[in-house]
């Protein structure tokens, strides 16, 4: 029996969070890391592969308007994974969204695990949010027929009742429908975890394989982001 460690973190700009992310990758020894809101332009995505030796990165950046002249980009999502993983790893290419990136891991005994990193819209437009969530919904609906599905990242809404005062009600309603439709479980819900609450969603059929789920508390890491990282460990049969 081996394990797979997954880290997810909204870095709020990778250029200011590089040192912290590098430290997290080393200290947690994570196999896969989902990074959201890296704020890189498309021409700078290669930077993510230089943060820590031994990791390969697949990433996306938001399209920017022609008159956008800031040195950094907006949004963005990426997945970093270890080059030494003892599984077959490949990017999922049929994703028609700049806010979702996907990775397929093939294991001998557990079949395929599909990991989707997402950074959903943070503005107040319910139409924009619904369109991106529908894209994610389509991906989960399709790939759950071929293996286990994990969605990680910043979904910019909450499924928890006590968070509704601080989140967009309409977006949270859409997210709750998505979670119920696919029988997903999330940190802060029925998944037991240590630390505070943060966004992480995993397919219910994988819960028996869940060894641990931890949200790293404020002060436990030196961070320039106002979001907390979460690390999950899954048991994988050899």
UniProtKB/TrEMBL annotation:
Catalytic EC class: hydrolase
One GO CC term, this protein: nucleus
GO BP of this protein: base-excision repair
Reaction catalyzed: Exonucleolytic cleavage in the 3'- to 5'-direction to yield nucleoside 5'-phosphates
Designated name of the protein: exodeoxyribonuclease III
Swiss-Prot/TrEMBL site (Transition state stabilizer) positions: 156
Coiled-coil intervals: none
InterPro entries: AP_endonuc_1, Endo/exonu/phosph_ase_sf, Endo/exonuclease/phosphatase
Cofactors that this protein relies on: Mg(2+); Mn(2+)
Cofactor: record remark: Probably binds two magnesium or manganese ions per subunit.
Keyword annotations: Hydrolase, Magnesium, Manganese, Metal-binding, Signal
Family the UniProt entry places it in: Belongs to the DNA repair enzymes AP/ExoA family.
Signal peptide location: 1-16
Residue sites binding Mg(2+) per the record: 10, 37, 154, 156
GO MF term set: DNA-(apurinic or apyrimidinic site) endonuclease activity; double-stranded DNA 3'-5' DNA exonuclease activity; metal ion binding; phosphoric diester hydrolase activity
């Amino acid at each position: 029996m081996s394990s797979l460690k997954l880290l997810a973190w909204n870095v709020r700009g990778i250029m200011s969070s590089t040192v912290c992310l590098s430290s997290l990758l080393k200290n947690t020894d994570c196999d896969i890391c989902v990074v959201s809101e890296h704020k890189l332009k498309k021409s700078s995505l290669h930077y993510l592969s230089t943060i820590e030796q031994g990791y390969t990165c697949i990433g996306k950046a938001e399209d920017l308007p022609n008159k956008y002249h800031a040195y950094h980009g907006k949004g963005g999502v990426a997945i970093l994974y270890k080059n030494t993983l003892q599984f077959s790893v490949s990017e999922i290419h049929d994703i028609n969204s700049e806010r979702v990136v996907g990775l397929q891991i093939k294991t001998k005994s557990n079949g395929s695990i599909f990991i989707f990193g997402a950074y959903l819209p943070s503005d107040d437009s319910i139409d924009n949010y619904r369109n991106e969530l529908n894209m994610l919904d389509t991906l989960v609906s399709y790939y759950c027929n071929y293996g286990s599905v994990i969605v990680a990242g910043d979904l910019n809404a909450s499924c928890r009742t006590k968070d509704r005062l601080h989140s967009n009600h309409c977006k949270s309603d859409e997210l709750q429908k998505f979670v119920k439709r696919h029988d997903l479980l999330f940190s802060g819900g029925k998944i037991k975890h240590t630390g505070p609450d943060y966004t992480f969603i995993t397919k219910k059929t994988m819960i028996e394989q869940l060894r641990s789920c931890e949200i790293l508390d404020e002060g436990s890491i030196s961070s320039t982001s106002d979001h907390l990282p979460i690390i999950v460990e899954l048991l994988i049969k050899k």
